[in-house]
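FW: tagging you since you asked about this chain on Friday. Here's the raw sequence from the shared folder, copied in full. Didn't touch anything.
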Amino acid sequence: MSKEENSHQQIEPVSSVMKVFAILNALAEKKSSGVTELSQKVMTSKSTVYRFLQTMKMLGVVSQEGEDDRYSLTLKLFETGAKALEHVDLVSLTEPHMTRIGELTKEALHLGIRDHDSIMYIYKVDAQYNLRMQSRIGGRNPLYSTAIGKVLLAERPESYIREIFKGIDFVPSTAKTHRSIESLLVELEEVKKQGFGMDNEEQEEGLRCIAAPIYDRLGNVVAGLSLSFPTLRYTQEKFETYTSLLKEAAAQVSEKLGYVKAA
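HL: got it, structure written out here
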């Protein structure tokens, strides 16, 4: 089999997914539609359309109007799209700052957001040194052992933080990793006061990380901008310079996102 044939085989559409999107597109054309009308539009049996609609209703994507068997789209897809757009804006706004700081420091930089009980990297700039972090865009790490995770949590209420970690085991990556939510909460108070977070060899031995928070227009921390460097290159002067660069860049991105710092 040729590579081209293999590629075509791999991307063959899944019929059920095609039908779901056909239903969504049909619903987008009118305020509401019934099962019979939808089944005719998407050329699928009424029973199949009904099953799809009930699943989408359960997921909050569509709503059923009373008992008259008519369905309409909710704002769920809009919210999902808005989040994706926000992440695109984040990357496009932050990338020039990350590139500039990377050129100045030659160290690795990451842009991360929260995904449930983890952070997810949505952009990175590799270090110009031979020693590089084992990270990738789309990769995840725990909230409790990363500088980005700490700035994402620091301004949240304690009850909110406890809910996130409910049933979560604190797995130590190194001897310095937090072992409980109690010790993490103590550090988060300090992160909130100082305006930046640190990972002092908690995720990876021999590696330090500093992160600054990025705010949206509502004043919520939506991302963290971090710089990572080996402990062997640490000096107090570098630490202060790196922290200043990150906070300045994060503040400028936050401003572009509509954040206005309270006087």
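FW: The chain is about 45% helix and 20% strand.
HL: agreed, and Residues 88 and 150 are 22 Å apart (CA to CA).
FW: great, closing this out.
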